[in-house]
Design a protein that fits this description.
Layout lengths: L4 H37 L2 H20 L5 H17 L1
Length: 86
């Protein structure tokens, strides 16, 4: 545990930021999984809705720097391919 006040504050702020970052990335992954689940089930309308949500979450993670832009592009491309094949 740090002794200096600024270091203590850093520990607190890093913990808060870690929680937010984890929330953004996990919600992105959950949205992707929900879309893939609907694709396997064959529900076009639900898949379309989940596709839009997944793309929004991927974009949010990319713009906030949680996911690299190339990874975001790759994920979006894969999801779009799945949607188009369906």
């Amino acid at each position: 545990m740090p002794n200096i006040a600024s270091a203590k504050k850093r520990v607190r702020s890093n913990a808060k930021k870690t929680n937010v970052n984890t929330l953004v990335v996990s919600s992105m992954r959950t949205a992707i999984k929900n879309f893939e689940k609907e694709i396997k089930a064959g529900n076009k309308e639900a898949a379309s809705t989940n596709y839009n949500i997944a793309i929004q979450r991927i974009d949010k993670a990319m713009t906030s720097g949680k996911v690299h832009k190339n990874k975001a592009a790759r994920l979006k491309s894969r999801l779009t391919k799945m949607k188009n094949v369906m």
